[in-house]
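Table S2 (continued). Query chain:
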Amino acid sequence: MAGIITALRFQKRDANRVNIYLDDQFAFGLSALAAASLKRGLYLSDDEIAQLQAEDERQKAYQRSLRFLAYRPRTIAEVRKNLRKHDVSDSAIESVIERLLEAGYLNDMEFARFWVNDRERFRPKGPLALRAELRQKGVANDIIDQVIESIDMTDGAYRAGLARAQRLVNVDQQDFRKKLASHLLRRGFTHDVVWPTVERLCQERHQPPDD
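Corresponding output:
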């Protein structure tokens, strides 16, 4: 593919990319940033072209990752999986991951805290469920351990149980206990937290309303 640059033309559909023509033939496209150092009459060897294309791949992958991160925080594993899905080379992926880490856009500890806090606020879950979710996101076990340790599982179980109890007003005491315990266990709370929570909600169920 080596040859002399005879034209550099901005793409009609993407003004941020430039088509490179070698010896009057279209050769490849580059980001405008990568093409900024090029000019007509410049000879490009095969190695130089390969370097330009590799840098272009890294830049496109980086921009793709920023868009992917714009919706919500992501883990390193999620970003890596997304780039592989778009056929980005392993070398480009690792370069992008390193750049995102250095810029502070990727941080698995911060992601784990975000994930757990979000669950705590809107849909409390126990440690078993949270561990499974974070592992699925690719978070390392040592990070999961640190984040899980900071959670007040008793409070989370109570709030999750209270929301469920309010929908069980017409069941008898035995079914109330059974359904409430099953609900909390499915949400990943452990037995040592579930049963005291069930007892607390059973007692509150029979307390007369305040005047």
